[in-house]
Structures are given as C-alpha cells and as structure tokens.
Amino acid sequence: MGLGPTARRRRLGAHLAEMRESSELSVAHVAGHVGVSEQTLRNWERGLSTMRKMELHALCELYEASADVRETLETARRESSKRGWWSTYKLPTWFKPYIGLENDATLVRNFEQEIIPGLLQTEAYAREIHLYGGHMPQPDRVEQWVSARMQRQRRLYESSPLELRAVVSEAALRRSIGGEEVMAEQLQHIVKLAELPNVMFQVISAASGVHAGLSGGGFTVLSFEETDPDIGYIEGPLGGHIIEDSNEVTTLRHIFDEVRSATLSQRESVKLVRTMIPA
Questions:
Q1: Where would I find the HTH cro/C1-type domain in this sequence (predicted)?
Q2: DSSP letters for 94-141
C-alpha cells in the first residue's frame, strides 16, 4: 500500500521540524516570520494539518533550503493535501486524524473492555453503537458513520492486509447490544474474522481476575512502515485523543502486552465465543 495523505503529512512535518531545529530557531520566531500562530506551526510539524504553497515557501526561505529540497517538500505538500476517502463521510472533526493514521498503519493493537473493537464489528452492531453510544451523531449521519466503519474493515482483506491484534473482555462479548439476533451475527462474524491469518483475537475471561487494563478504558496503538513512530489513541466521552509522546506510547504497548499475558489463547477465545452463539 502506498503512503496516504496522513503519512505524507507526518513525514513532511518531521522534515520541517528537523530543519527548524538545525537552524536553531524557536517555534515563536518561525511562527512570527510566517505569520501564523505557534499552535499552527506545531500542527504542521506534527503532521496534523495541511499548509499552503506560500507558507511552505516562507519556511524554506527562512531555513535556506536548497532548490532540490524545496522541490521535494513541495511535492510532499501537494500529496499530503489530497483528501482521504473518509472526508466524504461527515465524521466528527476529532475522529478524522485517527482514521487517516489508521489508514496508513500496518499494525493495529486494540484493547477494549466495554464494546467489541470497531474493526471487528458488524454493520448492525455498529449501528446500535452509533445510535446509543457516547458520541451520538445526528440521525441522518448514522448510516454514514456505519458505512465509514465498514470501509475501514476492508483493509483486513487486502492483498497486503492490515494486521490486527484485538484483545477484548468477556464482559463486552456478553453485553447485549441490539438484541439476540444482532449479537448472534456479531459473534459469528468474530469467529469468521479470527480465521484470517492477519487477525489475532483474544479474550480476557471473567475468571482472569485483576489485569493491567482494569485501571483505564480501551486504547489503540498504531504501527507504521519504515521509520514512522508508533501512535497511541484513546477515546472518551468528549472525543478522541491522539498520543504521540514516545514514553506514553511505549507505556500503552507495555500495558497491551501485559493484558495479553492474561488472555485466553486465540483457539480458546474462539471456542468461548462459539459457546455464546445461540443454537
């Protein structure tokens, strides 16, 4: 899979941050020179927002970049400004950056205590979550949000598929969302997805007792190709939060590994799920 706009934007931002630091210029100085806020400059360097050609030109002038470097950065800027497929789904502003990152990731580690992970949800289950969950959209947008979730899942079936490592509590599997028919379809769907070589699915049984994930909610860690650093993501009642601090992301990876050590094996997990499906 080629680099998407989010990955290109992150790499462009990393280059710009490196150039600023090499020039020994402060964020405040550079932002003032370009005529933007310090937060805007930080967002550019973090790959969280796009910039215009004239703004990149001003940065290159300040950093005294060579003609070749300017051409390379401008190409990256144009590519990073392209709209991703998710831009047409009217998703909440706080969620779009995560979707862009997930679209470029090669590995997703996802731990959930309360609900089944989004990449494993059926259309009916996802619809119920969106209708009654913590981030309820306007009724006319529910179907768009559900469609976007189904679109995200297509990467599990690509020729170079997304690798998913999902850990979920037994309580989430037993929580009735949408009634018996919806849950039966959802559990059958999990069993089917668990057969994919790129999907790892494990359950923390109710008998496992205390484990590392009890102190907080669910979270996700995304990994990428080449040198792009891992990204963490957590979601709460007020929206989602992307975690970039390397120490915090490392902590999330360690928690995920500790939680996995308390889970059933994939075979045992699937066997448990089968027992929950009505005969």
A1: 16-70
A2: TTHHHHHHHHH-SEEEEEESSS--GGG--HHHHHHHHHHSTTPPPGGG
Quick one: which H or E segment has residue 203?
strand 199-204
From CA 251, how far away is CA 203, in angstroms rounded?
Answer: 21
CA 218 to chain centre: 12
Q: Count the domains in the chain.
A: 2
- Residues 103, 87 contacting (CB under 8 angstroms): no
- Same domain for 182 and 123, yes or no, is yes
* Final residue in a domain of this structure, among 31, 48, 82: 82
**Residue where a domain stops, chosen among 63, 82, 101:** 82
pLDDT along the chain (279 residues), means of 10: 74 91 94 93 89 94 93 89 83 87 94 95 94 69 91 94 96 94 97 97 82 74 87 87 92 94 95 92
CATH code: domain of residue 77: 1.10.260.40
Record the tokens describing residue 247, joined without a space.
């120490």
